Amino acid sequence: MRKVPAITFHFWAVKILTTAMGEAASDYLVHTIDPYAAVAIGGLGFVVALAIQFVMRRYVAPAYWFAVAMVAVFGTMCADAAHIELHIPYTLSTAICAVGLAGVFIVWYLFERTLSIHSIDTWRREAFYWAAVLATFAMGTAAGDMSAYTLHLGWLASGLMFTVIFAIPMLARRLVRLNEVVAFWFAYIITRPLGASYADWLGVPKALGGLNLGRGTVAISLASAIIVWVGYLWVSRVDVEPAAASRDAKPSLHSSVEG
């Protein structure tokens, strides 16, 4: 059975919330406690979340979105560490992450002959999927910082720019029949700098072009919104593929006999 949700408005909305939350939470932890301890905590959360997700036999909203949220936090930390600790320019780190993501896609396709999110129904395909997700977060983080710092656009202008770019594959899918897989991954990559740019704009000091609401406040507010939204998805099951939902709803022979 599929291990990922249906691609609906709910998917994109919660995905963008997690990217924004991951940026704010990562920055808050790194600037509040020892950076190495923060990365260790993020790494542990990442491992635990993926372990829970892989144990699940089907898509379960809290498990899946917990994994996405921890990828957002840890992926941000990895990308930031490359710039801060290794002094790699944002332009170069964006290019490196892009090459890494392309490598994941190439290997994934060579083994599975598909990159479709609708085919995530085996352990190996799920492993490739999460490798691609982590690579998109790292690349998106670097791209967002590059637009804000290197290109001097600032956080709000970057957020608006990425909002427009995010809409391009959606429109191309309708107008020129852009390939579904290409459109999905294009939009998926852009959600990272889109959400992160708005999170930084809300949280960073006014001297850096933000509203100075505080990274911790932004992280907690976004995490609360994610919890409420995912709780709704878990209860309503509106993001479960119809076929999967019908299979779950269909009683087994054993349950019919006992009923």
Provide a quick synopsis of the model.
The protein is mostly helical and 259 residues long. Helices cover 78% and strands 0% of the residues.
Mean pLDDT, to the nearest integer, reads 88
Output the radius of gyration. 19 Å
- The unreliable regions are 244-259
- Helix and strand content put the structural class at mainly alpha
Q: Note the overall shape.
A: globular
Counted up, domains total 1
Helix and strand pattern: HHHHHHHHHH
Tally of helical runs: 10
What is the number of strand segments?
Answer: 0
Q: Indicate the percent of residues in helices.
A: over 70%
Report the sheet with the most strands, covering strand number, pairing sense and barrel closure: none
Strand content: under 5%
- Could you give the distance between the termini? 25 Å
